[in-house]
Every structure is written in C-alpha cells, then in structure tokens.
Specification:
By secondary structure, the protein is of the alpha/beta class. The protein folds into two domains: 30 residues, no CATH class; 228 residues, Alpha-Beta Complex (2-enoyl-CoA Hydratase, Chain A, domain 1), CATH 3.90.226. Strands 3, 4, 5, 6, 7, 8, 9 and 10 form an eight-stranded mixed β-sheet that branches. It has a two-stranded antiparallel ribbon with strand order 1-2. β1 and β2 form a beta hairpin. α4 runs parallel beside α5. The protein is globular, with a radius of gyration of 23 Å.
Length: 284
C-alpha cells in the first residue's frame, strides 16, 4: 500500500534582528577575534587578545609620541601640483582633492617641532590613508625641510614611516625625492645628530629604499611589512621559494636590517632612552 504524505503548513516566525550601530566592533586581522572598538582605542589600536597592531591615525601618532601641547607643525599649507597633467579613470587633481577631504590634511605627511619627554626633536608622521602615503614632491620636500631644520637647530630627527612607495602620478619628480631626502640625512649625520626612523605597516618601495632605512637606529612596530618589492614580484624574479614572513619586522630584525622591534605602548619611552644615550654621547 502506498503511503502519501501531504504538505504540512508550518507557521513562519519572523525574528527581528537588533539594530547594531556601525563601528562598535572590529575584526582583528591577527587572531580573527571580534574586538570592541572602545577597548581597541584604549589600547592604542593594538588587539588586546593577540597584540596585532592596527593602523594608527597621524594625529593619534603625534599624541602618542609628542609631549602634550608641544607639537608645532611646519609647512602645513604645502600641497602637490600636477606637473604631468596626469589623467586616468580619475585625474590626479581629483584624487588629491578626495584624499584631502577624507583626511583633512594637504598631503601624506605631517612634520613639525615637538618635545619627547622634554627633549626638543623634529617629528614627522606619514599617513597611509592619504594615497597610500606615497612619496611625491610634497612628501619629499616636507621631510627634507624637516631634516634640514633639525640640522640647523641641532635637534634629533624622528620620522614615523608608512608608505606604498613613490607616487606614480608625479613620475620622475617622485623618484627624485629618494636622493633629496638621503642627501639631507647625510648632512644631518655629518653634524653629529641622531636620526631614528620608526617603520610601521607597511613601509615599502622607494621610502624603504631611502630615508626609512638610513637611521642611526631603526625601530619597527611588531608585524610591520617592510620591503622594496612585493613577495610575488621577488618570487617571480628570483624563481625561488621565499622564507615565511621574510618581509616582516621580526624576520628583518633577526637578519640585521632592523635594530629593534618595539610594541606601540613602549615606543615613546624606548625612543627617549635611545635619544638620551645618543645625545649625551654626542655632547661628550
């Protein structure tokens, strides 16, 4: 005998999802855990579960390193021109305007005078949110001026680096900044003054190949990606398998390119300690 099953009518229950405001939680790229945004902010944008370092905005970075109320910006109104008349999907001018509106700043670096634990320094901070902190003529000029002013005023110089490399929209003008910043640092070194770059995630290409790695002491944040070309390009060029993590700060410290990897919460005190040692030795 054949059995027949009729359709059953199930009642539908609609569960209303609670509205959760955007920006309350962040997913950590290090451990995959969901972290409360307020907890992350209180911990200097470092995951409290695994120590992964999220990016830190330029003003927050200045607040972290400069003594309260001590930072005075230099060359704040300097902004890029469009020497090549670059056009693509969007023009270079349109990209600059969009990034200026997004960040509230004229270009990808902020430079100025500051005090760090009471010591006068020159402080520069690069911002990856502005066109990937690419180094165009304004970035190179502002950094060069900072170094030269530090030399003239006998200040140590600290630059927090983050960049995808040279700014393609300015062509050769961007590549010239590598030589210009390096020459300014050579004169700073001849004057017997310390220069300390702090490499954050990511520091790549022309910036890494110039002022980012010309320091007397090179410091990096944990897990920062640091290199000239990306791993895919290197692998295709060398036709060799690459060691795991070979462009991360810890690997580079182990192999001698980086002097120390310092967690963000310890960065200011470590910088103060290194500067005290170097300046006291220079004075003697």
């Amino acid at each position: 005998m054949a059995l027949r099953f009729g359709k059953k009518n199930y009642s539908a229950v609609t569960v209303r999802k609670r509205d959760v405001p955007d920006g309350l939680w962040e997913k950590c790229a290090g451990c995959g855990e969901i972290v409360y945004t307020k907890e992350l902010e209180a911990n200097l944008q470092v995951c409290p579960k695994c120590g992964h370092h999220f990016s830190l905005g330029r003003q927050n970075r200045i607040d972290l390193l400069a003594d309260e109320g001590s930072f005075v910006e230099w060359d704040a109104e300097m902004q890029s021109a469009d020497p090549l008349g670059f056009t693509g999907k969007d023009s270079y001018v349109a990209k600059l305007e969009a990034n200026q509106k997004k960040t509230g700043c004229k270009d990808a670096v902020t430079c100025g005078a500051a005090k760090l634990n009471g010591r006068d320094i020159g402080l520069g901070v690069m911002d990856f949110k502005f066109l990937g902190a690419s180094m165009g003529s304004v970035v190179g000029e502002k950094i060069t001026r900072q170094i030269e002013r530090c030399t003239a005023e006998k200040r140590p110089c600290v630059i927090v680096c983050a960049s995808g490399g040279a700014r393609m929209y300015e062509g050769l003008f961007s590549l010239m900044q590598m030589a210009k910043t390096s020459a300014a640092l050579a004169r700073h070194a001849e004057a017997g003054l310390p220069y300390i770059p702090v490499l954050t995630h990511p520091t790549m290409a022309g910036v890494m190949a110039s002022f980012a790695t010309l320091g007397d002491v090179i410091i990096a944040e944990p897990g920062a990606l640091i290199g000239f070309a990306g791993p895919r390009v290197i692998k295709e060029t060398t036709q060799q398998d690459l060691p795991e993590g070979f462009q991360r700060a810890e690997f580079l410290e182990k192999h001698g390119l980086i002097d120390m990897v310092v967690p963000r919460g310890e960065l200011k005190e470590r910088l103060a300690l290194v500067l005290d040692y170097m300046m006291d030795n220079n004075a003697s």
